[in-house]
Amino acid sequence: xxxxxxxxxxxxxxxxxxxxxxxxxxxxxxxxxxxxxxxxxxxxxxxxxxxxxxxxxxxxxxxxxxxxxxxxxxxxxxxxxxxxxxxxxxxxxxxxxxxxxxxxxxxxxxxxxxxxxxxxxxxxxxxxxxxxxxxxxxxxxxxxxxxxxxxxxxxxxxxxxxxxxxxxxxxxxxxxxxxxxxxxxxxxxxxxxxxxxxxxxxxxxxxxxxxxxxxxxxxxxxxxxxxxxxxxxxxxxxxxxxxxxxxxxxxxxxxxxxxxxxxxxxxxxxxxxxxxxxxxxxxxxxxxxxxxxxxxxxxxxxxxxxxxxxxxxxxxxxxxxxxxxxxxxxxxxxxxxxxxxxxxxxxxxxxxxxxxxxxxxxxxxxxxxxxxxxxxxxxxxxxxxxxxxxxxxxxxxxxxxxxxxxxxxxxxxxxxxxxxxxxxxxxxxxxxxxxxxxxxxxxxxxxxxxxxxxxxxxxxxxxxxxxxxxxxxxxxxxxxxxxxxxxxxxxxxxxxxx
Length: 498
Hints:
Elements: E1 2-6, E2 13-19, H1 23-41, H2 45-61, H3 63-74, H4 78-101, E3 107-110, E4 123-129, E5 133-136, H5 150-158, E6 162-165, H6 171-187, E7 195-198, H7 201-209, E8 215-219, H8 222-234, E9 241-244, E10 250-253, H9 255-260, H10 262-274, E11 286-290, H11 296-304, E12 309-310, H12 314-329, E13 334-338, E14 348-349, E15 352-357, H13 358-363, H14 365-368, E16 376-382, H15 385-392, E17 398-404, H16 413-421, E18 424-429, E19 468-474, E20 495-496
Parallel strand pairs: 3-20, 5-6, 5-8, 6-7, 8-9, 10-11, 10-17, 11-16, 15-16, 17-18
Antiparallel strand pairs: 1-2, 3-4, 4-19, 12-14, 13-15
Helix pairs in contact: 2-4, 2-6, 3-4, 3-6, 4-5, 10-11
């Protein structure tokens, strides 16, 4: 069998597809990752940093070959994908910087203290890689959350071999990117099992159940992520599963903001929820506006003028159509506007905007706060802060939450930020959440169902922490300690000595 990609703009197949990985080949990939781990984990940070930089350079050099493949299989435009290649190589270079600086190891050295209560022996603690990692590539970012995306970059930086389960929406691109990665592994003089890839859904499950895989990262749907999360937890040896799932990303506008800049609010919101045909995990799906806001005509006009766009695949298109049909039929919801009519061929979607009230949302939170992955959003009108806070209490966890306010705003902003901070991993003030900076301070995570583990981020420097575990060495002779914990400090990394 083959994994076949399709152009979502036309519905036509792209190329001849990529052969599914056989069970024997999956076994070979897993064996290679396990065999590579002892040597790879022991490589000095500088060696891994050079390898990550080599991957980044090779990816940039291959953009002219890879971007057309991505366009054909995703329907995304060239400028967007060209920028995504640059983001992906920047992620690789960021993690090269992270491991070169060495703070990520959290090396701590404590001398013995017989007078402590209880007496303290000599202790040395650091973080070391968990073992081979399984990464599930995402559909909506064919580069940045795919074969050489953030999960792969952070795991390789940690010293963990990576097995990628390629996404079925872009198999040709995944195969070409994997070939590039394999050549870079060989040219860096690293064991071949440092990087591997498998094609096929059942092959991804087979790999997740294998005891040689010690952790996994996923970006995708709530249903798919929950299934895999349960598989990881049901193993005889349960493993960490870092899943990024559904996110509704509520945005709140105060009355003062409506009065001060109505045009900016309309253009910013519509631009954000339709960006990339609404297929960003940070898309604002709920917009809380004060009753009597008066933005209805402008919002409708902006949505009606918005272009239709291709979705990533037919499955996403079908799920969106079904979900929005149910939302349109909801007795407490009215459809406010529909954008440009979508072509009949391929997997296109028109922007759509709906309106409801806080009372309706509280009465049916499951129905009205469900994520609709595509260019659709729901306006929720509130009467006062207490009414708003009650409605926000019915909204589940999200990756982001946004506030639009004004200087001197008499709205209870501290309380609002506290409420939103309890429900999101990133709170945005006077901005829109689409777009995630790749940086040290970024957090791309949040409470369930946005992620399976809100303690970690999947974007930014600290994403490496997911693939590391702490180990303490008690009374171990100097010559037997890992380099990062030796007094000579041959790796030259920061060591904390309380």
